[in-house]
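User: Just a sanity check before I run the rest of the batch. Below are the structure tokens for the first item. I only need the designed sequence back.
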């Protein structure tokens, strides 16, 4: 098996390659979109280091794998004929089923809640905001490049999933939600 070299010197002057060999600036919408997905994946690694409840660990590890698929999808222009895994509808459907399952076990939302709770729960709230930032970058990219439309559905649903998981983890860990009361 060939070892992956960490440095190539190919990006020393501000450009990098998408899959298929197309060179782009490192501050391009392509790189920003999948870079923010990578940041989200790293944050999930931090959350896993917080020892969240066992039932969340397996799902978070799956999300990390799916985020690699999303990142490679975003790094692969659709018009370049390269075989890579792509985000597909079952990714989104699975997120929706898990959101629905957890929601049944949570008190109904009637107000905004303040992000926080346990270390894992509060970082899941933070992950939701990173997912929303990644979503904004993907929407920007989709405004002028053809991308897999499932990428948009997936990242949108993932932020909802992270919010619901934050609430669920906080419930499992005995942390009461704080209701936002507006102006004091």
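Assistant: Here's the designed sequence for the first item:
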């Amino acid at each position: 098996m060939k070892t992956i070299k960490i440095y190539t010197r190919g990006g020393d002057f501000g450009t990098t390659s998408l899959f298929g060999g197309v060179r782009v600036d490192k501050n391009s919408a392509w790189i920003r979109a999948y870079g923010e997905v990578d940041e989200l994946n790293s944050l999930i690694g931090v959350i896993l280091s917080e020892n969240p409840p066992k039932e969340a660990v397996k799902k978070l590890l799956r999300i990390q794998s799916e985020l690699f698929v999303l990142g490679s999808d975003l790094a692969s222009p659709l018009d370049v004929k390269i075989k890579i895994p792509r985000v597909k509808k079952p990714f989104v459907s699975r997120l929706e089923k898990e959101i629905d399952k957890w929601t049944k076990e949570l008190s109904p939302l009637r107000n905004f809640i303040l992000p926080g709770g346990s270390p894992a729960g509060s970082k899941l709230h933070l992950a939701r905001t990173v997912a929303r930032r990644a979503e904004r970058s993907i929407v920007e990219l989709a405004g002028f490049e053809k991308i897999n439309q499932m990428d948009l559905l997936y990242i949108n649903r993932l932020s909802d999933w992270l919010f619901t998981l934050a609430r669920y983890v906080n419930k499992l860990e005995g942390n009461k939600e704080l209701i936002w009361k507006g102006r004091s």
